[in-house]
Design brief:
This protein is mainly α.
């Protein structure tokens, strides 16, 4: 299977991910810049460590994309 998984998975990385607030805020921190065409592999390569360690760091980086903000009622 090609890097990034299915065609829809590659589309997510190369189109949708680039529009997320997370990527918009963080992309300038990667020097040289991460190529959109190389996602997700080029982004994974920026995290130090062996295979599992770098993948774990990438998942921690991506975690804000999977967390929803919860607003509690006043007084709680």
């Amino acid at each position: 299977m090609a890097e990034g998984g299915s065609p829809s998975g590659r589309r997510w990385w190369r189109e949708d991910f680039l529009q997320t607030p997370l990527w918009q805020a963080m992309c300038a921190r990667f020097m040289p810049p991460v190529s959109a065409h190389g996602l997700p592999g080029d982004l994974l390569a920026r995290f130090a460590g062996g295979g599992a360690e770098s993948l774990s760091r990438l998942l921690c980086f991506l975690a804000p994309l999977t967390v929803r903000t919860l607003t509690l009622p006043e007084g709680r």
